[in-house]
Amino acid sequence: MSPDQVAQCLLYVIVALLLAKLLGELAERLKQAPVVGELLAGVILGGGVLGFIRLDNPLHLTASTSALVLLAELGVILLLFEVGLESDLDDFLKVGPSALMVAVVGVVGPFVTGFLVSRWFGLSVPVSVFMGASLTATSVGVTARTFSDLGQINTNVAKIVLGAAVIDDVLGLIILAVVSSIVIDGSISLTKVAITAGTAIVFLVGGIVIGLRLAPYMMVAAKRVRTRGMLTISAFLFCLAFAYIAHKLGLAPIVGAFAAGLILAKTEDQVHIQAGMKPLADILIPIFFVMLGVSVNLAVLNPFNSAYSGSLALAGALVLTAIVMKVVAGLGVLRKGVNRLAVGVGMIPRGEVGLIFASIGWSRRIINSSEYAAILAVVIVTTMITPPILKLVLAKHADKTRHA
Predict the structure, then answer these.
(1) Rama region for 288: left / alpha / beta (φ>0; ψ in -120 to 50; rest)
(2) Dihedral sign computed on CA atoms, order 195, 200, 205, 207
(3) pTM beyond 0.85
(4) Is 138 within 8 Å of 164 (Cβ atoms)?
């Protein structure tokens, strides 16, 4: 990066953090989750409004924007690492069957209905398959932050949603492999699908088992080093290593970060690690949500924009499908006494996962501009509506429980 590009990136960070904190404070005063303000800050700064930060194509970025995206990625990695640190692995194993059922329903339902809706609008079979696949993945970042803001990250509802999102990521990988084979190669490679699924399962199970054995020794060694902050740095490196391995295996880095957090939560240094990571997380996590908002292009919702006007009907149908089928996934909860509606609402946001799907489809010419706009509309609506709706659902359930 040139000095000018470094200066530009610094200006981006200054403005992004300042506006995120101001609107986050406003959202909290209006009794909404602060993440709503941070997302709105990104929308305002992005190409859809002010155009201060441009992120028109996530696959082709300027040097200064790439640096900002890297900070955002570190932010969401830290977010899921913190969630893992605040969680209990044993509790996650207890809600495992419910999380699995929610994930399966939450993937199959949107995929099938998304395919049927696309076919009803006259799209070809390969494109319809891709459109259905783009509705399957859940962006856990928005939901995790909302649960954290509301102080409910350790509830059964949050654990089921987070567990389902991890399984969702594995299923999403399999679906992406299948869809790519159908659309690009014209056939399905069962070997590729089996390898993808097996690799994901081995990483999650094997990584956690091995990590639980290695982590205590790593922490003891870190505490013997006299260099300042070595315990926090060691934990951060552990998190990044798991995120990196997950990425190399085709999983989302946040899955590795979440697993690393679950592992270190079992060590005696959990509280110290949490305290050490908090200042860095407080800076980087808002940048992730700002960049998520920047990715939103409100032009795709403008009926007077000739480039996207033809996609509004399809977008509306897909948005409705995307919302309803994830809410239905909440019915997959097997444990009694769990707020199934909150689980379903927590699975709604597509966020950066949907943007990645859309960018892949667009760059490979699988979908055209109208279909690309329809997927972006799903991302915009599902990401923005989830925090306020989830807060409302949780509040109503809490009132009902108190008066029962």
Answers:
(1) alpha
(2) positive
(3) no
(4) yes
Q: Give residue-wise pLDDT tens across range 232-275.
A: 899 999 999 999 998 888 777 888 888 899 899 888 888 888 88
The whole-angstrom separation of Cα 375 and Cα 139 is 14
What angle do helix axes 230-248 and 63-85 make, rounded to 10 degrees?
110
- Alpha carbon 394 to its chain centroid, in Å, reads 20
194: Cβ–Cβ under 8 A, 6 or more apart, which residues?
Answer: none
Determine the Cα–Cα distance for residues 114 and 175; give it in Å rounded to an integer: 14
CB 114 within 8 A of CB 134: yes
d(CA 329, CA 140) in angstroms, rounded, equals 15
pLDDT of 293: 81
CA R_g for the chain: 21
| pLDDT score, position 238 | 94
Question: What is residue 268's three-state secondary structure?
Answer: coil
Report the first-to-last Cα separation within the chain, whole angstroms: 61
Residue 334 located in a structural domain:
yes
The stretch 131-160 carries a mean pLDDT of 82
Q: Domain range spanning residue 348?
A: 83-287+306-403
Query: What integer best gives the mean pLDDT of the chain?
Result: 82
Q: Is residue 391 part of a domain?
A: yes
Q: Residue 316: is it exposed, middle or buried by C-beta count within 10 angstroms (0-12/13-18/19+)?
A: middle
Stated as kind and residue range, the H or E segment containing 56 is none
Structurally, the chain folds into a number of domains equal to 1
